[in-house]
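Field: sequence (string)
Field: structure_tokens (string)

Example rows 1 and 2, in order.
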Amino acid sequence: MDFQYIFDDKWWMWVWHNFSFVMLLIPSIAATILKLIAIRHPEVPTDTIMELFRKICAKPGEKIGGNQ
């Protein structure tokens, strides 16, 4: 397989047109995984799960919570 073929114009056009969809998809997948953790381990407090979700969705360098 030719390396140039993988990153041709069609590939970049797909990335450009689907960028916003992918940016919405990543937090949705993270939220689903955290929800499955909450269902599988009900003893974990909701605040802990929400704090983890906030850390996943935080911008680099952004402080989350009051303990940092």
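Row 2 begins here:
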Amino acid sequence: MRFHWMLRLLLVCVLAVSSLGVLMTPQNALAASSRQETQAVYYTVQRGDTLSAIARRFDTTVDVLMRLNNLSSTRIYAGQSLLVRSAAETAYVVTRGDTLSSIAQRYGVTVAAIQAANNLRTTVIFVGQQLRIPVGGADPDGRERIQFAPGGISATVRGYATAIAPKRYVLRAAAGQTMTLNLSAQSVFAGITLIDPNGRHLIGGEYRSQQWTGLLPLSGDYIVEVLNGGQGGVDFSLTVTVR
């Protein structure tokens, strides 16, 4: 009886190990341990905070925070919501044989982009190091995020839009700032729509303009949509300024 019980226990253990081997191959284990999707992270500024202190807390740089939040200066205020990590990032853990160049090729980004995202001064990396990989400038729903250069107040993007497939952008701005939109397109039917963080149209609906300037009512992500109301599509350039 005892022999049969031990044999049955051994069989159960063998089956369990076999199942584990099927579920977690060395390749799957490597992929699971080396790559992890991240979500956007926001931080609410507290009294006494500085941009440099927040950058140190979240292991990033002042330049990155300014770019993510379209800040033209390092001035921040209590209660302000800051984007400290974009959703368009992947966390990658360096494994044996990795180089910054091979990781960049794997994710279709540049070495310089990885260095900037991780505040790296050289290309030297080590096994076990966690890297932020900027995997693109688009939000999960396909909207391209507009980001200003550190200290900059404007950016120009170019694209192609139709009535069926408008081009959508998203950018972060603060309440009280002034936004200016200038659309250049070879079509009188092309226009822009601006939606605030609460989903309210500031411009749009039946009437669409190619130029707009206004005071922003809220802090958060604003959606800018470009579409062509005529037949076919149109190439365009859009300049966004936030002061």
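free_text_note (row 2): The chain has six helices and 14 strands.
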